[in-house]
Amino acid sequence: MNILYDARLDGELPVNDKANVLADLEGAVPGLTLLHREEDLRPFECDGLSAYRVLPMLVALPESLDQVEALLKRCRALGVPVVTRGAGTGLSGGALPLEQGVLLVMSRFNRILEVDPDARIARVQPGVRNLAISEAAAPHGLYYAPDPSSQIACSIGGNVAENAGGVHCLKYGLTVHNVMRVEVMTIEGERMTLGSEALDAPGFDLLALFTGSEGMLGVVTEITVKLLPKPETAKVLMASFDDVEKAGRAVGEIIAAGIIPGGLEMMDKLAIQAAEDFVKAGYPVEAEAILLCELDGVEADVDDDCDTVRRVLEAAGATGIQQARDEAERAKFWAGRKNAFPAVGRMSPDYYCMDGTIPRRELPRVLKGIADLSEAYGLRVANVFHAGDGNMHPLILFDANHEGELDQAEELGGKILELCVEVGGTITGEHGVGREKINQMCAQFRPDEITTFHAVKAAFDPSGLLNPGKNIPTLARCAEFGAMHVHKGQLPHPDLPRF
Amino acid sequence: MNILYDARLDGELPVNDKANVLADLEGAVPGLTLLHREEDLRPFECDGLSAYRVLPMLVALPESLDQVEALLKRCRALGVPVVTRGAGTGLSGGALPLEQGVLLVMSRFNRILEVDPDARIARVQPGVRNLAISEAAAPHGLYYAPDPSSQIACSIGGNVAENAGGVHCLKYGLTVHNVMRVEVMTIEGERMTLGSEALDAPGFDLLALFTGSEGMLGVVTEITVKLLPKPETAKVLMASFDDVEKAGRAVGEIIAAGIIPGGLEMMDKLAIQAAEDFVKAGYPVEAEAILLCELDGVEADVDDDCDTVRRVLEAAGATGIQQARDEAERAKFWAGRKNAFPAVGRMSPDYYCMDGTIPRRELPRVLKGIADLSEAYGLRVANVFHAGDGNMHPLILFDANHEGELDQAEELGGKILELCVEVGGTITGEHGVGREKINQMCAQFRPDEITTFHAVKAAFDPSGLLNPGKNIPTLARCAEFGAMHVHKGQLPHPDLPRF
Fold first, then answer.
1. In what residue span(s) does the FAD-binding PCMH-type domain sit (chains A, B) (predicted)?
2. Which of A256-260, A378-382, B14-18, B22-26 has the lowest mean pLDDT?
3. What is the pLDDT of residue A492?
4. E-only strand ranges, B14-132
5. I need a surface site. Which of A5, A399, B373, B392 has the fewest CB within 10 A?
């Protein structure tokens, strides 16, 4: 395996003269909006992971593909790195700017180009908001399935870059399962079409490769998404448990009973209390855990499934089961879950949102592990899960004004992710690796695998100028992190609790 | 974009001394079964595309991963190309041997390692037959969804290599949608794990990249597949039409009505007659086209959908609609479709099976185009489609004993595929590119895109020794083919009928 791409970290990036680069780009890209004064750059210093902040050298806000092409070609020629940003709602620092780089903001590409109800597709520009696609499709009884919590704000281009999921991805899949074709541009300004309107495309599946590649391979310039018919009905059950591990086991048992819920979410006591305080969702605040199970489809089918799920929950030891009586109550149940993050934010000056995925059967064990880690670090952890697909979002509560607590929270977060890897899971479910989890990649992958990532990166971007320092660690970084070659149950961390 | 990999065509491959290579491999890989005599090699000279035949230099039948690793490392050192073969049922010549190469046959890796009904997964070796997975899962009420027509014989490793589909892929997806993790080995003998048991994995999506890569990137050594619960019931409707284009329009209208059938198949008059002669399926031989629409799920839901589909078919001008009364009749309806290929084989000394995909809305136009091409070439074409996902299998009837007819059939087939590209479709739906469609890749992709494929190939296999000459054409080949840079409606072929 040959290493062609030397993933640069900030410290190794070339030092570019800002005034020169600005003058060059102004000359080379007519009409391009370029921000360069500190006060103009400030709003772009972070994405949704605001613990990491870097002021970019320049911010570019192109309005046409010709401008994007000219900008990329010029940056390539000058050796200036480029970080692409959608709506900036990402939670792993994937759009964190570089001090020596251009931040390419795609927000002005915000047009829905086509909704074709017969083919059930929409063709959109990358800056279109996720929810705007469903709004445009609604008159035809259709919608776009992936629904990240940020769907009011996040852009579809960012969704492609991060392979975004959401509450319904257990049943309806991630972004990669709902995108048919993307138009992309490489750092060399070359335009490529990946995928097709057909189920499959000949040659390598570059569409899937590109989806979730976090801006490392190219810039998304147009997306064709699948639209689905709106389910006839949706019903939601809420089950309470007096034990969080019992709730974890119930999740696996629902799936094992042959049900694929539209959404299957879990919250633990701290998350329940925070949400209830905030939105009065009607949650049982004395419960150790609740499950929210939404079933959607045709009426008769949904009713059958509700009965089955109810039986499974009872057998699993649920202390109470409530079915939302109407749409208003259903919305209330979901409001608690959807506002869990800001709700937890009200309980603590700061919180750190993790994102790991584990095999469903390991839920009880990992919950126990997180509780032990929480106690060992003396930091509270609220757990909010897309439980059905094993995607966990532990929220670590801390106070950044207390000396060292941020570091402690980060370390605890890292340990939780390593625990995910140890049980056969992964260090990200839907938020991506970005800058945040670059070290944990060393725990997830072997050196050969990381080398292959770099080789694939080089196939698209031999100059290594697109979003350097994100997503894939250098082998040197992994050696420093000291956790190479980790697989199930073999994590060589002496300080990690054993389970 | 840098070209790193020089895709070799047969003529450009190194000349290896067979006796030397044999002696070397026998010494280097203890216990490896190596076939070298012409009579032993003969059964391996082609895969399911028997029009192409090449006798391999050697055939290797390893029994352990250590043998595979040692073999690959040795071939890499000697510069001997390697073609991997599963069950040899592929229809595009992807496993066509090389005169100067080793054919690596994975058929002895035929063990089902694990069926986990709670996690709904099975872990299997690559030589396991597709249907054997469903058989092993059946006691748990589960099955493996992708069902290529060859599922009795084809191997799951080959399914991954070709991203195989089947009658049910409209609803249940292709292989890539049903595989969670693969273990692979590179030409350098490095072992990698791609994917995970979770919905998503961090880093680039190498699992999806690898699926359908036709043995160009590495050798699949283990596969973890998803299992689905068997649908409670399945019902099938057969509709007759007096006009093939009407039937084509009905397909789009069924989907537009919000139904996703388990299977939605179409056959034209020639295919109907062939099938009826062969298996007495009860098909209306006077019809110009029939649609078979299978609906599966829970009883009440299926009944509702049957009513909806019936209304749509009536409105679309169906001249007759029959619902299979029982399982026996349902099996009979499907037997006709599943035996359509051998049935057509009885009508003509030879036939050539094409595989293209088009947007559903273009079905009527493409059917007209195929009819025109058929007339222009004086060769009969029977049409059998996975209509729901726009995947067509035109069968071109010819007699290889008639001077020039094979060439004519191949040329006609190429024209049909170019027509697919012209209307926004692709040159393969589920059979892959292999050796067969290497020229049509030039019609499908621009030079930049093909260069990217080569760069990705080089990221995994810089030596270019894995299955050279398949799947991705050289740019030189495309220049010769003379059809670069083709996109919707811009095909520069003066001799292609215009529509």
1. 52-230
2. B14-18
3. 35
4. 33-35, 58-61, 82-85, 102-105, 112-116, 121-124
5. A399
Last residue of a domain, one of A105, A127, A144: A105
Would you tell me which residues 49-108 of chain B have a C-beta closer than 8 angstroms to some C-beta of chain A? none
pLDDT tens per residue across span A264-293: 999 999 999 999 999 999 999 999 999 999
Which residue, of B171, B206, B229, is where some domain finishes?
A: B229
Q: Could you tell me if residue A488 is inside a domain?
A: no
Q: What's the domain range around B355?
A: 348-481
Question: Domain with B392 in it: what CATH number?
Answer: 3.30.70.2740
Domain count, chain B: 3
CB half-sphere exposure, B455, CA atoms < 13 A: 24
Chain A, chain B: beta-carbon pairs less than 8 Å apart: 245
In angstroms, the Cα distances linking B367 to A317, A484, B52, B155 are: 58, 56, 28, 33
Q: State the pLDDT at residue A316.
A: 95
Stretch A297-310: mean pLDDT, rounded? 90
Q: Taking CB atoms and an 8 Å limit, are B120 and A255 in contact across chains?
A: yes
Report chain A residues whose CB lies below 8 A from the CB of B248. none
Task: Name the minimum distance, in Å, from the CA of B213 to any CA of chain A.
Answer: 5
Residue A365 and residue A323 share a domain: no
From the CA of A255, how many Å to the nearest CA of chain B? 8
Kindly report, residue by residue over A426-471, the tens digit of the pLDDT: 888 788 899 988 888 888 888 888 999 999 999 999 999 999 999 9
3-class state of residue A112 by DSSP: strand
Q: Catalogue the E-assigned strands of A247-337.
A: 263-268, 289-297, 320-323
Query: If we measure between CA atoms, which residue out of A74, A69, A287, A341 comes closest to residue A186?
Result: A69
The three-point CA angle A286-A287-A288 to 5° equals 120
